[in-house]
Design goal:
Length: about 250
């Protein structure tokens, strides 16, 4: 996993990157030996390491070390035992979203691995009679120019919620009366913040932009979507709204 991607908004020099990689590869040793030993090993000094932590918006050196240990290094070892995998924000939007499935014309998009989830959602909507289309074209504005169809809702799938493809769609939808629904792993991402309804899927490898490590995120996306369909069927048969639980839990 490239640390440059994790701290992409901060310009780092070679020494700073070397320090971060040393922590990533040796978190226990870093904690045990302390800041002076790490500075010596990386040909730096303790004050520079403290400044590095502040530069990355941490309160101090140890907060930086523990962040890397528990959020970057450890998830590589085992990321498939998590059971709490989905939340919806805002939760009150769930029932209206499900009701609109019966009449909305929906366009679904995802790129890379997310395209596989988008394809699954599209295929399942075809089976259930939802009026849906799948967009493989990465640029929504060009797609809109090429088709006369108007869509009531756009469903976007993006693991990071920060991909250029997803953000281009968000920008193109500004000012349009189109509902935006997203499946993403980061509730703080620009996509989640822009969406009318965000389905937040647990992503234990949030910073793995290359999708290298084992990760249940995309499987959870499909499980989450199937759960939404189940709630839709229940709502339709009962003729009443369905409340969204705070957290969806996968069966062990």
């Amino acid at each position: 996993m490239e640390l440059e991607n994790i701290f992409r908004d901060v310009k780092l020099n070679k020494t700073e990157i070397a320090v971060l990689r040393f922590i990533q590869n040796n978190p226990e040793q870093t904690i045990r030996e302390g800041i002076r030993a790490v500075a010596e090993r990386c040909y730096s000094n303790p004050s520079s390491l403290v400044r590095l932590a502040k530069k990355l918006k941490f309160s101090g050196w140890l907060e930086l070390v523990y962040f890397i240990k528990f959020n970057i290094t450890l998830p590589k070892r085992d990321v498939t035992n998590d059971v709490n995998f989905m939340t919806i924000q805002p939760a009150d939007n769930l029932s209206p979203l499900l009701r609109r499935l019966e009449q909305d014309r929906i366009l679904i998009h995802g790129s890379g691995f997310s395209q596989l989830v988008a394809q699954y959602i599209y295929n399942k909507f075809l089976v259930t009679g939802v009026n849906a289309s799948l967009a493989l074209w990465p640029d929504y504005e060009i797609l809109e120019q090429k088709t006369a169809a108007k869509f009531d809702a756009i469903w976007l799938v993006s693991k990071s919620g920060r991909s250029s493809s997803a953000l281009n769609w968000v920008k193109a939808l500004e000012g349009k009366n189109t509902d935006l629904v997203c499946f993403t792993g980061d509730y703080q991402s620009p996509l989640a913040q822009a969406a009318d309804t965000a389905v937040i899927i647990h992503d234990p490898q949030k910073f793995d932009d290359d999708i290298y490590w084992s990760n249940p995120f995309f499987g959870y996306c499909i499980l989450g979507f199937e759960h939404l369909l189940k709630l839709w069927f229940m709502q339709a048969s009962a003729g009443a709204s369905v409340d969204a639980p705070t957290t969806i839990i996968a069966s062990r």
